[in-house]
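Q: I have 133 residues here and want to know how they pack in 3D. Can you give me a structure?
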Amino acid sequence: MYTVRTESSFDAAHFLARYNGKCRNLHGHRWRVQVEVKGTELKDGMVVDFTDIKKELKELCDNLDHSLIIEENSLKESTLNALRDEDFKINIVDFRPTAENFSKYFYDKLKVNNDVSKVSVYETPNNCATYEE
């Protein structure tokens, strides 16, 4: 079995609505995303062309970079409108924006075109969550 790994990162803010802890407050991270692709067969000597998987991952990260990531229905409409009036880059997601859920998010997006085996998302240099099937 061969394994290849690539990674990318993005800077973004989030908060955990209805959470009883300090992460309920708006804060930011340098999110680091590692993707692993496994295979027993090589095509042209490669499991996957790094150029292709890196491009897909970078596009996903660039979309989230320097944005405020908000869980759907977690802010008052007036607050959301005020942020939009200020022209902030906002990404509304249908999941709680945790490292665990982001690992599944990236896995699902990248699995469409690749034989992804697992995705790890670091929200700090020491804290990481991994999704694999």
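Q: Anything worth noting?
A: The two ends are 16 Å apart (CA to CA). The chain has one domain: 2-65+96-132.
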